[in-house]
Amino acid sequence: MLTTLFASILNANHLLPILISQYGSLVYLGLFAIIFIETGVVICPFLPGDSLLFLSGSIAAMSAHSLNPVILIGLLAIAAILGDGLNFEIGKHFGHQLTKPKWQRWVKPQYLKDASTFFEKHGSWAIFLGRFMPLIRTLIPFTAGISRMPYRRFAWFNVLGGISWVSVAVLAGYFFGNIPVVKTHFELIMIAIVVISLLPAAIMALKQRAQNRRKGIESNVNEIK
């Protein structure tokens, strides 16, 4: 999965400009679909949303291409909001079925556990904060649906998070994506964005594992006593 992810990031830098020159405004629909699927389909948390938004913003800053940053932000924010809304409904109506063992190949138990821990720690703000964390981003609304979070509260943080995430990523690409040093090492920058954004989830998983190990040791000590 990681190999496919990195390959898609490296290819997107060259493929997206070609698609824009061939299909023009239809590329907006493709970008909309990718963001919607990443945020809305619980089995697709691996899609490179952050790097794709950054790349789109950097291309929009080039006069040779037709992407408009305002349209990008508006359209992709809608995609992100609708995606999370769908994911919430999937969790609400089908969450308990999708967490059964036969679905573990697609809905990874560790990812779901990390999302649940994140949700319990941050409460409603997890909907907003989770937007900026791959994997967690896709599973947080699913977890909120399972927990029967009131929809009005979810919708508020969903809209706030969707607009903020898309705006920050697209504008970062728009203003910084075409700096010479960034353009020269664009592929590495894309990979760095993914790695850095994955760090919080990785740290959370390591902390959880350490806590479980500590509890196991304490349990063994108590049994010996």
Automatic annotation (TrEMBL):
The keyword Nuclease does not apply. It holds the Pfam family VTT_dom. Keywords: Cell membrane, Membrane, Transmembrane, Transmembrane helix. The chain crosses the membrane at residues 25-47, 59-82, 154-176, 188-206. The keyword Membrane applies. It is found in: Cell membrane. It is a multi-pass membrane protein. Its main location: membrane. Residues 47-174 form the VTT domain. GO terms for cellular component: plasma membrane. Belongs to the DedA family. This is DedA protein (DSG-1 protein). It comes from Secundilactobacillus similis DSM 23365 = JCM 2765.
